[in-house]
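Take just one protein record:
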Amino acid sequence: MPTPAERIYDAAAAALDAQQARADQITNQIGPIGAGAAAAALLLKPGLHDISHARVAQIVGLVVGVLGLLLVLGAGILVLIGINIKRVEAVELVDLGDTRPDLMGNPQAFDVEAAIKMGGTRTDNAEALSKLRRRFFVVAVGLLLEVAGLAVAAEI
């Protein structure tokens, strides 16, 4: 039967794992969105066809579509670059034991201190995940602008 300290440690480790899984999930969604952006970019050719006789709405649509495409590319690259989801490595826990020798004789106190360290890491990761979500939102808005703008430009 795990002690309360072990349960706290396990919960902290599970929370970090959940953050990593969420970051991976967001990053993995970029592929299909990139494919959609590439498919929508096929509307560039009809949008540029006979541009000298285009109406104002078509030109505005073309500009909006190209700006959307640039948003998808720029923010998509930032999402793919990713963020730094931190983990508490074993060496950090060994350092914790080195800096606090009193913890080495008390495994429960060590587990609690390790969980506290993981809690701080989880807080840092929450901001990084928020940044990743904002980048993904920009990608989605860019895709919407691209599709809508190029559809107007191509008179679909």
Summary: The two ends are 66 Å apart (CA to CA). The mean pLDDT is 81. The helical segments are 4-28, 30-41, 44-48, 56-81, 90-99, 101-104, 107-153. Residues 107-153 form the longest helix (47 residues).
